[in-house]
Structure to design on (549 residues):
């Protein structure tokens, strides 16, 4: 009997096709969708997505722990709100496709799966016009479980809910209420609503602010002209955006022509993604406050920051292209932006917290980003190497030069520290004007040889006129700590070479330059220093930088 029902409740649609209607079990499915992989922070971000898509300017989140341990989370926005039909669609599992495909919502599941991942009961209250009445619809997972039907509740709106709507939304907008939040915290506390549970809630509030500051940084940043500016507040405190790329002090390594990547999708159309490779300053080049507040250098912070329509959906790690735990590359952060046209190409998941790269795209990204990856590695190691060899002493060299009286040295008649110039007598004549760094009141132990953090142009050394007072200047030499010769050769001097011998050689070059230069020859000497420094760097390319170990 082809049209009779089977024992499991299914029945064939027709004899010809032998097709079957096989509706999912409501109780099993609605509870099963709780385990789609959300945590509290990604669930909150999904609700915020809907508010931004509703053109909200202000989004207010309120987390409440009551005396008896009951926990509620409220999300209010001043977006365009919904009428009854719109609200019914929003609460449907698998809502209709949005008119605006570029909205942050994607599958019509976010509101429901995000909410149910944290709580057993959630409601949405909305109003699209100031003079309209509030509309409310509720999903109660235990009710669905009891009757095993996709039945929402038509609950009355309480006075408390009206007050909360007015507080968090205003005249129009949408309020999402999470009640019976059995998964907001990871454990049950002996004293519900007690001190320990309050501490755990406060921690959640703090981490949620940090999460929003990163995930929605382009929307929170009023200076970002490409995205609508919104305000997000958590328990009445506005969230301040955190830009993980710290563009004020970081260097973007890709040339303009490499910051756009064209990607062909299945229908043959081509769409562009934007990519930038940022190398952040090393923590040793920042104050503790700059690092903790703006840069936040860490191993887990390196790698890709994937943005879909301006909202971060993935951060940290190299998507399988390189190892994600390489500490020497912790300065590299990759800003990758794409729009909704590339959703299928990147296999964006329901939570909008993961993408997948196909092998061709992975290879293209690796080729394009390899120079930046290697440079980040080298910069980290070079600064680490400077740290390793910071204990090297140049005192013996300074003492030797001080005690050696018969070396040929320039005679300085006048020296101006502010202008960086001097009048000297040298092999070119008397009253010769030279352009050179001038330093007064120098520590006697660094009077002739001094290792410095950097030299303009990147040369290994430069001559300088120094004085322990503000007169009687003599030739000294600055040695560039950040040059490969210093980090790779000087760093081994305590084992195999003589620091003093290297110092004296460079001081002798500096003294010879001062003794044989004038304004016309200045650039010739600079060219010689640059040429020697460049060749040394090339010769040392295959020599490993020392590690902190």
């Amino acid at each position: 009997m082809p049209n009779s029902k089977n024992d499991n409740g299914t029945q064939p649609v027709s004899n010809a096709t032998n097709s079957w209607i096989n509706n999912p079990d409501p109780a099993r499915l609605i509870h099963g969708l709780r385990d789609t992989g959300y945590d509290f922070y990604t669930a909150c971000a999904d609700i915020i997505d809907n508010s931004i898509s509703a053109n909200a300017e202000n989004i207010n989140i309120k987390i409440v722990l009551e005396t008896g341990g009951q926990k509620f989370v409220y999300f209010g926005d001043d977006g365009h709100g919904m009428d009854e039909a719109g609200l019914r669609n929003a609460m449907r599992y698998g809502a209709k496709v949005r008119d605006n495909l570029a909205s942050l919502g994607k599958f019509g599941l976010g509101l429901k799966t995000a909410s149910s991942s944290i709580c057993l009961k959630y409601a949405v209250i909305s109003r699209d016009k100031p003079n309209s009445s509030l509309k409310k619809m509720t999903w109660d997972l235990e009710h669905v479980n009891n009757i095993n039907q996709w039945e929402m509740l038509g609950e009355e709106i309480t006075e408390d809910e009206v007050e909360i709507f007015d507080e968090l939304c205003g005249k129009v907008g949408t309020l999402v209420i999470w009640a019976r939040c059995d998964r907001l915290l990871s454990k049950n506390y002996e004293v519900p609503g007690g001190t320990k549970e309050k501490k755990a809630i406060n921690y959640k509030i703090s981490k949620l602010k940090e999460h929003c500051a990163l995930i929605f940084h382009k929307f929170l940043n009023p200076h970002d002209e490409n995205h609508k500016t919104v305000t997000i507040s958590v328990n009445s405190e506005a969230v301040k955006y955190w830009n993980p790329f710290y563009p004020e002090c970081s260097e973007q390594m890709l040339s303009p022509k490499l910051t756009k990547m064209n990607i062909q999708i299945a229908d043959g159309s081509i769409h562009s993604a934007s990519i930038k490779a940022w190398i952040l300053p090393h923590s040793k080049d920042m104050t503790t406050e700059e690092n903790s507040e703006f840069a936040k250098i860490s191993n887990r912070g390196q790698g890709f920051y994937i943005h879909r329509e301006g909202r971060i959906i993935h951060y940290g790690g190299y998507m399988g292209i390189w190892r994600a735990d390489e500490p020497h590359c912790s300065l590299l952060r990759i800003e990758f932006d794409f729009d909704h046209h590339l959703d299928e190409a990147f296999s964006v998941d329901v939570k909008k917290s993961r993408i997948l790269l196909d092998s061709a795209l992975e290879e293209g990204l690796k080729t394009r980003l390899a120079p930046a990856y290697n440079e980040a590695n080298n910069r980290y190691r070079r600064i680490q190497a400077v740290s390793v060899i910071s204990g090297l002493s140049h005192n013996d060299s300074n003492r030797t030069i001080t005690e050696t009286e018969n070396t040929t040295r320039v005679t300085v008649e006048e020296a101006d520290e502010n202008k960086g110039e001097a009048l000297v007598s040298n092999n070119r004549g008397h009253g010769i004007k030279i352009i050179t760094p001038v330093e007064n009141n120098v520590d006697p132990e660094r009077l002739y040889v001094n290792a410095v953090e950097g030299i303009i142009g990147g040369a290994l050394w430069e001559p300088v006129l120094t004085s322990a007072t503000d007169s009687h200047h003599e030739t000294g030499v600055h040695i560039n700590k950040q040059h490969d010769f210093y980090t790779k050769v000087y760093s081994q001097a305590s084992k195999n070479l003589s620091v003093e011998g290297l110092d004296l050689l460079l001081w002798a070059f500096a003294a010879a330059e001062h003794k044989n230069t004038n304004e016309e020859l200045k650039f010739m000497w600079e060219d010689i220093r640059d040429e020697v420094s460049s060749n040394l760097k090339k010769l040392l390319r295959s020599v490993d930088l020392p590690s902190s170990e």
Observations:
- The two ends are 79 Å apart (CA to CA).
